[in-house]
Amino acid sequence: MKCDTCRMLMPVVVLLVAGGCTTIERTFDGYGSDQVWTAMVAAAETPVYADWTVAANDVWVDESEQRIEIYRHLRRVLYRPGADPHPETQTWRFEVRLERHDPPMASFVSRGVGLPTDAQYEANRFFLDVHDLLLGVPGEARRSDADDEQPRPNEAVEFRGPD
What we know:
five-stranded antiparallel beta sheet; 4 helices; globular; Alpha-D-Glucose-1,6-Bisphosphate, Chain A, domain 4; single chain; alpha+beta
């Protein structure tokens, strides 16, 4: 009887943990709303990833609502010591919105199914892109080390011993 109940409840628990929206907010002290909005649009339209290739980046900008809808598909081949190359894909569906506060506040809402920690990682990456654009950091230099700063959950990290 207990096993039947567990089997029935497991899909519900998985959906509650992996489904739904995750919202992350960030304030941008020292910048005007127009500056932050311009940087948000640029970060959405020109994403930079250190170890992913952007296969699709569809962006819809709603100027009047200061809302951006983003669909992004990423690809990479993961190389681990002693293992065959492992192709990976990742799909993001998220919305970013600017609230005109003092200081300006942006919200990131993940609309895809996944773990909240993954959404937190992508939100941090997006907001770091926005911050770098506000600082005037150009192109590939913008986030060339983004993934080194925040390892993805459950990702194998290559051990490097002393030289």
